[in-house]
Structures are given as structure tokens and as C-alpha cells.
Amino acid sequence: MNMGFGLYQEQSLKLVMTPELRQAITILQFSAVDLMNYLQEQALENPVIDLQEISAAAEPISKKPETSGAELDWKEIVGNRATGEYGAGQSENAYNPADHARDVSYTLYDHLGEQLGYVKGLSASQRRIAMYLIGNLDERGYLEIPTEEVSTRLGVSLTEVEDALCVIQHLDPAGVGARNLEECLLLQLEHEGLDEEKVVRVIREHLQDLANNRFARIADQLGIEIQEVQAIADLVRSLNPRPGARYHTGETRFVTPDVTVEKVLDEYIVLVNDSSTPRLTINSFYERMLKEKQGQEDAQQFIHEKLNAALWIAKSLEQRRLTLMKVTQAIVELQRDFFEHGIHYLKPMTQKEIADRVSLHESTISRATSNKYVQTPRGVFELKYFFTSALATANGDMTSSESVKKRLKALIDGEDRKRPYSDQKLAELLMEEGIEISRRTVAKYREEMMIPSSAKRKRF
Questions:
Q1: Is the model's pTM score more than 0.70?
Q2: 337 and 275 fall within a common domain
Q3: Number of domains in the chain
Q4: 13 pLDDT exceeds 80?
Q5: In this structure, are strands 259-264 and 373-376 parallel, antiparallel, or unpaired?
Q6: How far is CA 145 from CA 122, 139, 159, 178, 182, in A?
Q7: Domain interval for residue 78
Q8: pLDDT of residue 430
Q9: What are phi and psi of 261, to 5 degrees?
């Protein structure tokens, strides 16, 4: 074997990740909201780019693109989108559901402070303590800071703090100002006039047993019938353990569909939602400078560089649109039974099947469907929802895991609550329907759907 050094010449193929290719990949995996933020950032960095907002483009622009010899190549790529003549979203009656979202500026602090203003007989010191307590409520409406600490911080007596807290606990919503779950439930029972001795004892002494459906133990210790414990459990579960949650002003995320599937006669039409993002246009001032050869050579070179960058973004946007359309069309073709008849007809499907169908790589399919949503006649779904694992049936066919989950939920909804089905029984019932599934898989699907076990579903 020759272990010496030497020079050899050979040919090889390798993929070079150019900045433009990385940019195209990045744009492809953006959701509609992320893409809008990305284009706004690019518009700030690149003076050649103008973003035409949808609201400003309600009326079609009558200006026609010039066709002189000085026309730039970028217009051939950007096409009508660059001149503002693309028709999507230009109707003045266009409906944007985000415009009708609830205003979240009214907080729990505002709600309780407003009610406190109507309480008579409170001194200035008492109002100050009460507002301090309101300001220390968490998003559930609970007071997590100890009253002793409030007394020390404000330099007032513990009795004054307890009196102020009592005032808050009688405000709306019922249960607000509680220091733990037990107190929250008791406050709501008192507000409804349902604080009977047996119910209060169950909450104070057997709340954990109640959560785990250990009704027989509660009945034995309280000396009551198990049916009465069931009634108490139903009452307690009707209460709100998080009374302040409806006023929580955390970030609200709205789903903006990237693609729309509409049924026209007997065909399904796929439309990419271009109206969800601003239109990329080229600033007319810089376009005119290039045509008229105005400015210094450095300025001309700078504009050319920025124009090339804008061109690559336009190419990437168009590639993203075409890829989304091809992938969604392939999904619709393979899952036509789902669109016609519902989730029971959802077929098992992998990204490789779609990749082979549209002649793209699996990684491209993954990026194209990541964080993307499609609006269909049957609702809004994430594109990845249609990629489901397969389960065998008795006749040798395959069914999707989502359709099995739907059938599993239907069986549980229709069971006798006094004798709920165990996971093994559910597996046997599905086997009778021709779906080969194990008990462990049933338990896994049930937990994914947040359905409790048979012991916790049982009623007496």
C-alpha cells in the first residue's frame, strides 16, 4: 500500500449554500405573520424596497408599467406585484378578522379598581391597602403575597390588611383575592349561597380525593351516600378555579391562514393568501435614478446592490408562493375524501409521498408546511395536521391516527358513565371495527386528547 504524499486531480459535486439560497430557505419556512415582520425589517435596511400595505391598496392602481428599452429586469420577475396591480385583497370590502378582535386593555386591576370606587365607607388608608392588594393579584386572581408581608411593607396592622382583603373577596368575579384553590372555591360557594356543611367539608378535607374520583373513601369518612358525593363533585367542578383568567392580558396569537382551499362545483381550488403580507414594490425614485444615470458612480453601485437584493427577495417570495401552492394541491389531491366526508376519511400520509408527488426534497416539504395554516370548508388546520401515522385494519388497508382518535373519542362519549370503558376494552372495540391497535396505543391517544382514565370518568 502506497502511504506517500502526492497531488491528485478529481471531480466532485457539492452543494454551496449561497446567501441567496439561505435567504430563500428562510423565507420558505416563515409563517404569514413572520414573513410580514421579515419584510418590514428588510424594508428598513434596504431603501430600494417599498412595502405597499393592503389598506393603502384598496383601490387598483391605474398606472401601467413602462415598456421602453430602459425597463429593468426585476419587473419581469416581480410582475404585477411590483406595480401594485395584483388583485388579491384589493376589494374595499375585504374582511380582516383581526380587526374585530377583543380589546384586552381592560385588565383585572382596572375591573377591581373600578368596583372599589363604588364601595362606600372606606377610608383613604383602607383604599390604599386594597389597591396594593389588587396590584399583587396574579393572572388567576389569587393573592400570592402573604398578608403579614403586606402589613410590614405598608406599616399597617394585620387586621387592616385582612379587612381590605375581605372587601376585595366580595367583588366580581367571585373567588378573586383567594390565597389558594380551597379558599377560591369556598368564596364562590358562599357567593352562590351553596356553602352547605357537607360541601364545605369535602373541599376542606377531601379536595385531592375529589380530584382523583375516590368517592367511596369520601362517602365512608363523611357517612353519606356515594351518589351524594357525586352531586357534590359535579357542583365543585362547575366552579371556576381561575376567576381572574378572563382578564389576563397575555399575548394573544391569531392564526392567519397561509393558504385557502375552496370548493368550486366539484373541484377544490387552492389559493395562496397573498393579502396577508404587504406587497413588495421598488421605490420609484431609485428606479428613476438608474434609468437617467443620475448620481455618482458609488451611488449607482449602491443602488444596483440594493436592487439585486430586492430582486432576490422577490424571487424567494414567488418561489415560496409556488411551493406552497404545489404542496397544498398535492395534499388536497391525496386527502380528497377528507375534504368530502370528514376526519374519518383522513388517510395516512408522509412527507415523502408529497415530496415524490411534487418532485421536491422532504426537507423542503417540511419547511413549506412548518407553522403554515390552511383554511378549508371544514375549518382551519395546520398543514402538518394532514401528515399522520398509519394503523393497519383487518382487511389489510391503512387508516390514519387522527381518524382513530376521532373514533376513540366517539366511543368514550357514548359509554355508560357508570361503567366506563377501560383502555383494554376500547382496544377490543376498535379491533371489532377492524382497527388493529394495542392497549398502550389507546392510552397514548387518550392522553393526547386530555381524556382522563376510566377510574376518573366513572360516575356513581
A1: no
A2: yes
A3: 3
A4: no
A5: parallel
A6: 22, 13, 16, 11, 17
A7: 19-59+71-92+256-381
A8: 86
A9: -115, 120
